[in-house]
Amino acid sequence: MALLIVITGYQANPWVSKLQAFEPKLDIRVWPEVGDPDEIDFALTWRHPMGELKKYRNLKCIASMGAGVEHILCDPDLPHGVPITRIVEPSMSQSMSEYVIMVVLNYCRHNDLYRKQQIEKQWRVKIPIRARDLGIGIMGLGQLGGDAAKKLSHLGFQVAGWCRTPKMMNGVITYSGDNQLIEFLAHTRMLICLLPLTAGTKDILNLDLFNKLQRGAYLVNVARGEHLVEEDLLEALETGQLSGACLDVFRNEPLPEDHPFWRHPKIVITPHISSLTIPSAVVPQIIENYHRALSGNPLLNEVDVTQGY
Ligand code: NAP
Q: 142: CA distance to ligand 1 center in Å?
């Protein structure tokens, strides 16, 4: 019985040491040093090579190292019937909410303007946007979007949220489904994307959607790069339909050096850090799921493969 870590683009070592510290007797293998593939019961993955997971015929669970699972579901050769889990962890919601609140407050308090004025030694006052005057629209009211919506509402912002199925949330105006999207967008001056990446949400941040926002709206994408049609963002910024954007995620990561976003005066970039998975925080739920998978008990945070999240 063994747990296999299949990770690309990041180091496996922090995961190995935290898993070992939590459960010293656990047999941990790190791809590509797999040993006997029939001994693998559980795969902990981040952007595994396509087709790799079907080699393990005794696999009982495929666990994502993060909140998203699109990097697993995009594999056309996934083994059939093996449940997929994701990370749900309060510290990740807290981290995402902190990031989102930082962006919102920077926007309301004209922080970028004051940084520029400081370089030019200029003393000019611009009245802040009051929380109650700012319509914030959050796409996705799940673990992360729901937490950010509640916290922004407590700060006094006008918060609306859009999700797939109808939902009630104190202090948040909620919309759901495609037929309420236009109404939701019309309310929104700052749009925050916290959707999972699925067939229904890919390319959703496009010119048609931007044109339904209030003129001069601001975009925050903290979900996945493939939600955003990059050329459409550039066009919306050019025409003034959008006044700016803060992007934490990109179609190609790291963002290529020659990408126009880097030097765009209206775009703020961070390197996919809005809510990092901290191995020590999430190892307990992974080990719990490892034991549940071995004993055939219901798994924590299993995703609905038919919905894609
Ligand atoms: P979640 O709990 O699964 O919530 C997803 C939300 O999106 C739900 O409210 C869901 O609606 C809604 N949704 C899904 N499909 C939709 C559709 N077609 N139309 C409208 N709404 C739809 O996910 P989460 O844990 O909040 O995470 C969201 C995403 O954030 C992840 O998938 C990941 O890609 C991204 N993320 C980014 C970072 C980062 O560092 N940048 C870190 C972690 C996660 P219902 O409520 O009706 O189901």
A: 6
